[in-house]
Amino acid sequence: MSRLKTNAVQLGDNATATQNFTLRTNNDGTMTLARGNVGATTQDILTVSADGNVKHGVARSIVRLAGGGGFGSTNIATRRFSNLLFTRGTDITYADSATLGATFTITVDGVYSISYTDQFNSAAYFGVSFNTTQPATSVAAIAQSERLAMAQTISANAPNNCAWCGWLDAGSVIRAQTNVSPTNGLDPTLTSFSIGRIG
After folding, report:
1. Does residue 25 sit within a domain?
2. Model pTM greater than 0.85?
């Protein structure tokens, strides 16, 4: 009976290294499945630790913003934010426009989690829109297929939250969308928005 004993095996022989995979061990009870050729991998896909824990190497991306920054002058229901708190990864492209408001464009298919908290000087609807064709319209009045989540501030200066989690295709455009230009509440720092890829 013959046995193959090796520390690394390349799966695939494509001339483009990123089309191949390498399975390797470090002879210490750990194992890694990586993208690329033996000795020249570029991305760890899956690792097994010495105690048997499995970790996948999918990069995580997140954008976190805070502070009410008004609305787009053309897209008058699309929220803007005053502070970019944190950004990581390249799966989400955040853009802010004085005319169009804030947009979050998905660049990689995956499962995303979104949370939006806001408050206004009077009761108002707010929510998360998806590929909307009506970014200047109240989130309560856009097509249901273009609305991922929605909530209402019940009274003046009372913050509330809405959230959504699910699959988004690359190219999807997400917006924080409200009534038509309600004004900030007494404390705009209570406004926040976060979007992250979780799978």
Report:
1. yes
2. no
